[in-house]
Each structure stands twice: as structure tokens, then as C-alpha cells.
Amino acid sequence: MTTDLYQETDKTRARQARSQPPASGPASMVGQTAKVKSAAKPVVTLKEHIVEIVSDSGEGAQRCGQSFGALAARMGNGIWTVEIIPAEIQPPARSIAGASGNRIRLASDRVTNGGDEADLVVAFNEQVLLSRVRMGEIKPNGIILLESKWRNDDNAAIAESYAEVCEELSSAGYRFYEIPMEEECVKYVPDPRRGKNMFALGMLCNIYSLDLEMAREQVRFVFRKKDEKVIDLNLELLDAGHAWAEANLDLKFAIPASRPSEPQVVMNGNTALALGVVASGMEVCAMYPITPATSASHYLSDIFEKVGCVVHQAEDEIAACTFAIGASYAGKCAVTITSGPGLSLKQEGLGLAVMGEIPLVVVDVQRGGPSTGQPTKAEQGDLLAACFGGHGDAPKVVMAASSIEDCFYSVIMARKIAENFNMVVVVLSDASLATAQQPFPRPRFNEDWLAPPINQSPVQEGAKPYDWDPRTGLASRFIPGQPNGMHCLTGLAHDRGSHVAYDPDVNQEGIRRRSLKLAALQKTLKAPTLYGGDEGDLLLVGWGSTRGAIEEAVEILRAEGLRISSMHLKFLQPMASGVKELLQRFDKVMAIENNWCDSLDSELIAEDNRRYSNLAWLLRARTLVDVDCWGEVRGQPLKPGAIACAARRKLEQR
Amino acid sequence: MTAPLTQCLLRLIDENYTLTDYQSDTPPRWCTGCGDNGILTAVQRLCRDEQLSPEKTVMVSGIGCSSRLPHYMNAYGFHGLHGRALPVAEGIKLRRPDLNVFVTTGDGDCCSIGAAHWIHAIRYNMDMTVLLHDNEVYGLTKMQASPTSPRGLKSNTTPRGALLDPLNPLTVTLGVPNVSFVAQAVDWIPEVLFDIITQAYRHKGFSFVRVLQRCPEFMDHRFDPWIHDPLKTRLLVHAEGIQLKTDISRIYRNQETHDPSDLHRAREVASETEEIPVGVLYRNSAVPCYEDLREGERPNTPGLIRTVLNEEFDKFTIWPEDDGAAPPAE
Q: How do beta strands A284-287 and B181-186 pair?
């Protein structure tokens, strides 16, 4: 067959020779020799690696990456996967904007975020590869496995572009391998565009010493809805990729894994949200399609009817919100799932639910804003909109999910709070949690998660719908069907009997009581805990999806001997008591968020015009502590390395 | 023998609702001569005649003069947001088919700010009675042109006269697939108004009644030509629609026998501009209701939720001793 399967440019070889030991490998690399069937290949044992696989959309890199992640998880590795998604459904082929695929961070221990730059990338063409390089997503000396067929493409422009990129990247110090994936695949399939991904999966299994038999099971599972022929073909490709890598690559890693003692589930944040809705006992989800929230509703639509419940696709976001309000008012606490633009449209409805004291759960899977912004990208820009977005004084509960597991439990907790306090509860997730996968302990269903049956017993004669408790602000909730409970709920200011209030004292009282409920809830919240030390020079404060990255940054910096800790807030409104005291234990405090804040380095920016990040505004107002902030709006999850850099700079400031 | 019978009678009297059972302790605050008063009376009469339990009746409204109606009813009321009465009512009805749901809305509320919901509510065809109080003007915000205002109407926002032809709520409704009940009434013939609302209530589905309604404050004399000349009002009569009592029949002699199943004729009648058609324009009982289509096969008991959750978790689970039988989902 071909003798030039293993093509490398001379320059790459030279570079490799220069840089291989020890600089090319991650710091944690420990050289080891393992028994390989034929020629003994050195197996490098690693604590963790970050792998990316990218292609044009439709070439299956997503499926390859997801299967690889699931397989590693089944072997007992900690994993975190991040989808690489083009914004368009059919982006042009071979374009920088069209890169589609998956990042898989796999490790010996539990992984809480997507990590920094990738150690190894498999790319189906040089343009999608270039997109990841240009974005700084690949380690400077990282390993690149690139489909080589473009070198001899009939289209001279393509061949030239390929050669240029190869030249550029190999001279930039990457360990560069050209792989004849297509050439190998055509031996098995007529259209190698379909199937190349399984060849790549086979290669990766070989490179990372994953169990080939388990990989075969995974492939059978992935194609379980296809016929036997398709499954066999893909198994052949998997084996071919595995064998090819064994014969031709000098790459062999092992990331020791340990099987968990408890059953684990592996899923993404939106799936966890949807399962949380089922587990909460809510019966109605009203939604309108919006990225990146919709996949939660897709999955829910698939399973909700099995428990006799309904996903209602409304005509617009406003209708989705008010439909949910109607269902909740009638005793069937409902959820509406959306993203930023939808949250903006729902705001008037949320104000009505606050005014009428109707329980409601709102899930906002945040994306880049403002306006249409970056629909498929991660950002945490909606915190203040969630807290203060509506007109007038409309106190709502705002909480954030900080991991995939937390997406599941947050929805259950949100419904409980909504119904116990007759309040609107907003659960914030974001695009990075929505599509990321991570294993977590399989939840054990608990009937306490569910709502009690709706109350249809007669209301006591003379009782009032808004009999606000003077201490807590809590009132009853009369549900249609309850005899003697008849009243007209209104968005107008109203008295205890729900009569329209024209009296200034009544308006003042209503607003006071509704506000009081937040304080009552706050009294039930536990103080946040510190990650790292109990005091020190710098405290990083975060919320939502950034938890894993912030805590990893803290570990990195503490290993360097820095006195640094972090605190992660689940409840943003109300904020648990004790936050101020915790902030005061540290010399400096900095909020770390995936949203915008002005940098004091800018010429025009000074303390009196600086716009802070979302949480920093809240913390400064709440605690009067001089909270600084650092954030990025690059449309991707914050990286632990970048957070660590920002923290180091903060510590160096005087 | 007599004691149980007496008790039975007493219970009957107790359970027999009268008009006052549907009156709230808030007296109506509409202007004298406002058509809303007559609509309220017709609704209360309907509740009494159909013996609807006040606790099982929900009056949903948006914002506007007409949307104050729920405050004046002794029933559950929901006086919500401008334009959003219909989605609220849909949410209420979806999981509570036991409730009688009414929506009172105005020409601004329904045909302007809430127009999207109106179109889609017709498609959903949920079982509710919708009364469009159409006075062809914004009243609560003091005299602005509405989508149904006649061209040339001088209002605070159209001081030189409204420039556009009005939207016709009847033809719009009749143009939407899944339409199942459309009628028109006028507040100045209360007997017929009541009959039409009764037909609407008894129809299972989205029963849309446009009620032409006088606004003495801002549109005084608007309907005078029709009020003064009964022949300009065409009454649609049919066994499947409304039938007229003799006294009404004597006054309103302009009558047409209109079969409410005739959609084509309904659209022609709805397009009339000279005469006001009054009666049931269209009725189709065969259109399915959304809440029936979405009704769960099984009630969501804790046991069922546990089973389904575990089935779903199985798809994603890695067992400590993975024998490869159930790989996690990709």
C-alpha cells in the first residue's frame, strides 16, 4: 500500500526532535514503558489531557468527540466536554467560521471545566484547524493530527492553502502529523465524509489506550437505531483507525482511571435541566424556541408526556411566560425556559407574577448579548436583568447553577421556593453548561421533590387572598376551584382583598410585604463556603458556570504559595447573610465573571465612571467592600489559566 | 320520610345560584351608558341560567375599560397584562378542564397589542368564551384611535382623522384555520346579546363573540344610525344559531336565515359594512380542542415520575461494574 502514510514535513520532524523531551509534553508527563504487541511503544502516563476534534459541520466530529468523552467516562476518567459550534446551520465548507466539533478534557480525577489550551487536536481540514489556532485554543507545542488529502487536491487554491497552513503551523512549533484519513477510509466506505469520524475515534482510542472492546460497544450504542450493515461498517472503521494509529504513530498515552464506586450519569446541562423539571413535579413547560435553551425543551418534549405533562410551544416569548403564569395561577406551577432575548420579552409578565404573587420558575440559559449577540456562545450577562430587569419594584429570587449536576437540583429547589413563597424564581444557566457533559452521581428520586396536590378545600369565610404575614410578608394562595376563595387577581396595586388600591398606604404596604418575602427567604439560606483558605490576600467571587474554572485557578495559585481563595454564590438575590464578613477576611476581593467590565487600564476609565461586572455591582452595593472585577466576553467559558493570570496581576497591584 | 326530603330541598335552594351570587362587592365603575354594563349583565345572567359555580368560573382579562369586568364578578378573576389575556386563559385551561374560562378583552387589547395571541388562540381552539368589547376606540387612555376605529376618526393621536381603514375582527377570525365559533352581538339589543353569549358558552372550543359596544364618552352617537333604524341591523337566524322571540322579531325585520356551518357565507356576511350582522356567523364543533390533544394519557403520580426518571437516568448511567450493557448516551 502506501508508504507515505505517515507524512511529516521535514520541518516538523526537526521541530519535534528539538522540542520533544521534555518541553513538548505537559508538566505532569511521566515517562513509562508499556507492553505493546508489536514494537514496544513508550506509553506516557498523564494526569490529564485536553483533546479537540474539529471538522466542517456535518462531518461527524461532534459524534466522534461525544463518543470519545463518553467512553473515557465509562472507563472511569473524569471528563468535561465542550461543544465547538458554528453559529450557522450550514456554514461554508472549509471555513474558519465553520469549525464544528468537540473538546474533551479527560483526567484521572474529577474535571470541573473545559480547561485551558488543548494538548491534541484532530482536524479534518486545515481551515477549521486554523480557526482553533487563531483563537488560541491549542497549546503552543500541542499535537496536531490533520487530514492530509487536501495536499493533492485538484483545486490548486485548496492545495496551496493547505500547504501554506502546514508550513505556518509546523514552523510555529506544533507537533504536526498529516494523516491520510480519507485514503484509509475509502477502503471501507464509498463516501469517506461519512465514517471518517469513527476512524478518528479509533485513532484516539489507540493514542489514549482506551479499551477497544468498550469502544466497539459505544459505537454499537451510538448507531443503535441504524441497521446492522451501518453498525458493522462503523466498527470496521473504528478498528481501522485503531490499527492505523498503532502501526504508524509514535503517540501513546495513558490516563489512569478508576471506576467510581457509585453509579454516575453523564449528560449535558440542558438535559439535566429537563430532568430537573420532571423531578420537580411541575406539569407545564411553556417555551418559545431560542438558542441555546431549546435543547432542554427538545429533550423535555420527548419525555414529558410519559409522565402526563405538557411542553407548550407558544407563539412568542411573552405568550410562553403568560401561559406559564396562567397554569401556575390555576394551581399547576409552571416553568418557562428561555435565553437572554426571551428574558427581556418576559419581563412585563414576570412583574405581573410578582404583583399577583404567582409562583413561577424561569430558566435563563444565557448567551452572548446584547440584542441577538452571540446565540451559540457562552456569557453571563443577564444577572442584573434577572434581578432588576422589570419596571418598578419587582423582587424576584435569582439563583444560578454552577455545574451540570446543579442544573438538575436547581430546578427542583426553584419550584419549591416558588411555591413556598409565591414568588418568581429565575434559574440562571448558560451556553457553556448547556452543552458541556460531565459525570455526576446518579440522583436518587425523592418524593419530597414533588409539589403537594393542589389545594381545593374551601377557604375559611372572611379569609383574604393577600393576608400578608406582618413578619414574613407571606400570604395564602387561593386557587380557582376553592369555594369562598373568589377574588380578582390584578396587576394593579391592591389591598389584602385584592381590590384595586387607590390609597397611598395600601400601595406602600403591598410593596413592603412583597419585598419582605426576599428577606424571609434569605434567613433560610446557608452562608456560602470558602474554597481554599479561610482568610488571605485575595478572594475570588463567582457565580454560575465559572465555578470549576475559578476553583481550579485557586488550586494553581495556592500550589504557587499564594494566599488566595474563592467563594461561589448560588443565590444572587437574596444573597445569603455572612457574605460581607467573608469578603472582609481578605485583603483584596475580585469578582470573576464571564461578562463585561471596564478595565481601569483604559484611558477614559476611572473609578467614578467604571462599569463593573454584574456581580461586582451587586457585591459593592450589598457590602460596601471595594470589590474589583475581571471578566471576558469572548463567547467561551473562562479558562482557569486566564483567571489565574488575572488573580496574579491583582495580587501584584499595590 | 320528610326529614331527608326537606334537607334535600334546602340543599337545592342553597345550591341554586341567583344573579346576586355573581355580583362582587365592587360596584361597576364604568361610565353611565357604557356598553360594558350590558355585557356584564348578560354574563351574570348566563352564569345564573347555566348555574355555574362561582369558584369554578374564571374571568380573564387584559387591560382597558372592558378588562375591568372580572372585578365586578363574584368568581375567580385574573386582570393581567395589556394584550395577554388569551395566553393566561390558555395556561389556566390546559390543566384545569374543570374550570369555566371566560375572556373579556377590548379592541385595543385583542386586535392591537394582543393581536398575535388572538390569531394563535383561534388555532389552539381551547374551550373558552371570548368577548371582544369593541367600541372602536381606546377609552381608558382617553381617546386614541384603535385598529377598529373608522377611517377619518378624529382622536388625540389622529387629530386630522384616522388614515387607515379599520381592521375587521370578524373576517380576521374567520380567516384563521381551526376557527370554530364566531358571532357578533350589539350591546343595545340585550336579549339577543344574551342568546349569543349563551350559544358561545355552550360551544366547546374557542368561542369568539365580537360585541359592538357604545362609548358615550369618546364615541357618542357612533352607532346612532343603526340604533335609530332597526332595518340596518341584519339578524342571522338558524336552528344552529339563535332564534328570535316575537317582540324582537317584530322590531328587527331585516333577517337572514344563515347556516352557521357555511363558512363561505359567513365570510361574506362578516364583510358587510352598511348593515351590522348580528348572530352566530360560524360554528364547527368538529375542530379538536388543544387541551384535549395535549391531555396526558396517565396522571403524573409520584410513582410514574420515579419510573420515568429512572428509565431516563438508565440511558446516561455508568455503573460501577460496567458490563457494557448500557453505555451512556453520546
A: unpaired
